[in-house]
Design goal:
InterPro entries: DNA_helicase_Holl-junc_RuvA_I (IPR013849), Hlx-hairpin-Hlx_DNA-bd_motif (IPR003583), NA-bd_OB-fold (IPR012340), RuvA (IPR000085), RuvA_2-like (IPR010994), RuvA_C (IPR011114), RuvA_C_sf (IPR036267)
Strand content: 15-25%
Radius of gyration: 17 Å
Organism: Pseudoflavonifractor gallinarum
Order of helices and strands: EEEHEEHHHHHHHH
Number of helices: 9
Family: Belongs to the RuvA family.
Shape: globular
CATH class of the largest domain: Mainly Alpha
Distance between the termini: 26 Å
Keywords: Cytoplasm, DNA damage, DNA recombination, DNA repair, DNA-binding
CATH topology of the largest domain: DNA polymerase, domain 1
Strand order of the largest sheet: 3-2-1-4-5
Structural class: alpha+beta
CATH architecture of the largest domain: Orthogonal Bundle
Main location: cytoplasm
Number of domains: 2
Helix content: 40-55%
């Protein structure tokens, strides 16, 4: 229904930002990461997700499309609601979440408030499974191609898998990783550089 809201930041508080768009204030539930990019009285833009369930009708907003994609992936995991997803994305970045899933680092997820070991394990298991089956590539191209579980063997393939978690296609990932010195950089730095290149495209 809404792709994004853009206007003057009218109000911020923990997990909430109000964006004034032509005299209408849109209350967007959001993360600490997104809030850190907003300043009251200045222009702001949030990519949105409208959450509707029974009598619940809430708008969620994120400073980047990567964060929005991660939110949608997380609420697609059984037992993970919007509140838990916001908590996770307030404690880590999209690339950090992708790395946690690919490397199976449940401890990185339990740092988030309200996220225990069992739910962290479920997130890793379900999203790894979706990645292996090519279900985490909304633009129509699957990572791995065959539906066979892909176990990354080096930093380059781990970075590619992490970017696939964020919703990028194989061709986009290949272009983004081209020219990056994967041997000299850490996995997180590789992912960050690749994301910067894709944002500029």
């Amino acid at each position: 229904m809404f792709y994004y809201v853009s206007g003057t930041v009218a109000h911020v508080e923990p997990y909430l930002a109000v964006i004034d768009c032509g005299g209408v204030g849109y209350a967007c539930r959001t993360t600490n990461q997104s809030l850190s990019r907003l300043t009251v009285g200045e222009k702001g833009k949030l990519f949105t997700h409208l959450y509707v369930r029974e009598e619940i009708f809430e708008l969620y907003g994120f400073a980047t499309e990567d964060e929005l994609n991660c939110f949608r992936l997380l609420i697609g995991v059984s037992g993970v609601g919007p509140k838990a997803a916001l908590s996770i994305l307030s404690a880590t970045t999209p690339e950090g979440l992708a790395m946690s899933i690919i490397t199976g680092d449940e401890k990185a997820l339990t740092v988030a408030q309200g996220i225990g070991k069992k739910i962290a394990q479920r997130i890793i298991l379900e999203l790894k499974d979706k990645l292996a089956k090519g279900q985490i590539a909304p633009k129509g191209e699957s990572y791995g191609g065959t539906g066979v579980t892909v176990i990354p063997q080096n930093k380059s393939s781990e970075a590619a898998a992490a970017l696939a978690v964020l919703g990028y296609s194989q061709s986009e990932v290949a272009m983004a990783l081209k020219g990056i010195d994967v041997e000299a950089l850490s996995l997180e730095d590789i992912i960050k550089q690749a994301l910067k290149k894709m944002v500029k495209q």
